[in-house]
Amino acid sequence: MNVQEHIDAFGTVDGELRIGGQPLSRLAARVGSTPFFAYDRGLLDARIDLLRGLLPSRVELSYAMKANPMPAIVQHLAQRVDRIDVASAGEMRHALDTGIRPDHVSFAGPGKTPAEIRQAVAAGIIVEVESSTELGRVVTAGDRLGVEPRVAIRVNPDFAVKGSGMRMGGGPQQFGIDSEQVPELLRSFAGGADVLGFHVFAGSQNLDAEIIAEAQRRTVDLVAQLAGSLPAPLRYLNLGGGFGIPYTERDARLDLEAVAENLERLVSGPIAEHFPEAGPVVELGRFLVGECGVYVTRVVDRKVSRGRTFLVVDGGLHHQLAASGNFGQAIRRNYPVALGNRLAIPADEEMSVVGCLCTPLDLLADGIPLPAGAAIDDLVVIFQQGAYGLTASPTAFLGHPAPAEVLV
Asked: How far apart are alpha carbons 23 and 230 in whole angstroms?
């Protein structure tokens, strides 16, 4: 996708980007300082509506809070999705503060501490165990608290998902229990917890609909093999997610209709046949919130060094690590960037946007076309910033102030 398509998604007014119906300069004045993250509530709702309109009605949507734990976003999504997935006790508290039913919250991730497990068991949320050790700790917590814990087994599948930004299944992994070990674990399980079913998450940030569809088919086949080892009928089937969003010009948008058609065949076929009591879950983070957000930073200097023009801004990788290319990318590619207050002016001069940190890694855009008149106080906008932004960045580096976040 090109930059103009991202601009069009938000809209413009009087040559400025519009966010949540407000011109960028007016929003910046309301926030009071730069940098800041802004999330468009209308785009967030539109994404939910799109998924609801395409996915089978039996499929439940779960929000992976790790993508963006901003309280206002979590509160808003809690009214629109069916479930929330958390990865720490802190995220668990945020989720429960929304008023969502505890049994609609799942807790995943390796390295859960005994204290976190006790909190989860006491709250009544689903603990997705990632090892036999965790399962034992859950049972112990339930025994001491006098409650029956709710548990799902996170499975490390025997297949990997090609084309994913991060592979989280297949081969040796810190995530989940190897699929070949699951039957023996369940056979030796002496009780003390209600084992509801399985969670299989093989990869994230995938833009190929057929690869996602194949992973879902293989996941259902794998769970069908494992379900016979459960002490009770399967009632929880988390198919993972992995739906990607386009970050660079070379990225094509995911064919969501093709993914939905494959899910419909699975839901009406093998899932209905083998797991009539299970509400299949699709767990999404980035795909829900990623495209609704922007990072806005102000130009504080313009300089030319040996023929190369740099715009120096008051933000940087300490707020937006991924845009700098330092969040696991094998090859650095520019995110979509524009001068949000100069959209009516042609972008015809090559410039680089750099942050305010004392490291050459603080490069937010390398050699991109921007308006020739770009100057101090102009507002640089980086798109696709609704997920893995502020909380996935080294905010304490060099002691700069934290940016504001607004949902508009």
From this structure: 55
- pLDDT bin (cut points 50, 70, 90) of residue 363 is very high
pLDDT classification of 169: cutoffs 50, 70, 90 = low
CA atoms lying within 13 Å on the CB side of residue 351: 26
CATH code given to domain 101-284: 3.20.20.10
Residue ranges per structural domain of the chain: 3-39+292-407, 101-284
- Spatial separation of the C-alpha atoms in residues 64 and 386, rounded to whole Å: 13
Could you check whether 3-39+292-407 and 101-284 share the same CATH topology?
Answer: no
Q: Which CATH architecture has domain 3-39+292-407?
A: Beta Barrel (2.40)
Residue 310 to residue 382: CA distance in whole angstroms: 16
State the sign of the Cα–Cα–Cα–Cα dihedral 391, 382, 250, 3.
positive
Distances in whole angstroms, Cα of residue 20 to Cα of each of 15, 27, 70, 353:
16, 9, 17, 25
**Which amino acid is present at 267?**
V
Q: Is the pLDDT of residue 168 over 90?
A: no
Rounded to an integer, what distance in angstroms lies between the CA atom of residue 294 and that of residue 403? 12
pLDDT tens, position by position, 202-215: 777 899 999 999 99
SS (H, E, C) the chain: CCHHHHHHHHCEECCEEEECCEEHHHHHHHHCCCCEEEECHHHHHHHHHHHHHHCCCCCEEEEEHHHCCCHHHHHHHHCCCCEEEECCHHHHHHHHHCCCCHHHEEECCCCCCHHHHHHHHHHCCEEEECCHHHHHHHHHHHHHHCCCCEEEEEEECCCCCCCCCEECCCCCCCCCEEHHHHHHHHHCCCCCCEEEEEEECCEECECCHHHHHHHHHHHHHHHHHHHHHCCCCCCEEECCCCECCCCCCCCCCCCHHHHHHHHHHHHHHHHHHHCCCCEEEEEECHHHHHHHEEEEEEEEEEEEECCEEEEEECCCCCCCCHHHCCCCCCCCCCCCEEECCCCCCCEEEEEEEECCCCCCCCEEEEEEEEECCCCCCCEEEECCCCCCCHHHCCCCHHHCCCCEEEEC
Q: What is the pLDDT of residue 203?
A: 73
pTM beyond 0.90, yes or no: yes
Which amino acid is residue 321, in one-letter code? L
